[in-house]
Amino acid sequence: MQAANAWRAELAAALAPCSLTPAQFFVLSALLHTTRRRRRAPTQRQLSDRTGIDVNTTSQILRGLERRALVHRETQPGDTRAVAITLTTPGLQLARAAAREARALNRRYFADVEADPLLAVLSQLAADSQRRRARSKRTSRGAN
Fold it and tell me: Is the pTM of this model over 0.85?
């Protein structure tokens, strides 16, 4: 936890010139990933799932990014509750700049760490967590 908190604090410092918090960066980064792969614009719920940020917090982050004209929300035809989120041109530029800062931080922060074993452990932890969350959701739905 100390290592994760230290990395997050350094990420916050690296993103300060971009006027972004780590959570805002995670949302912009997920949108940048979608844009680069030319995938369909994600919904707020999908962004929440991809970033691991709860839906209410994701909504608050998106409102702030929208006020700054970095993202655009558009109601989906056929489902007025589903809102697709896209980067605006300034949002795309900022997401790219912030991603460069984050990559530079990661190169410095993890310079003395063997990448392959670390990636394997982190991937395993993430997969285990995802399975537990999915199991928990199934269990809670069955209880209702």
Answer: no
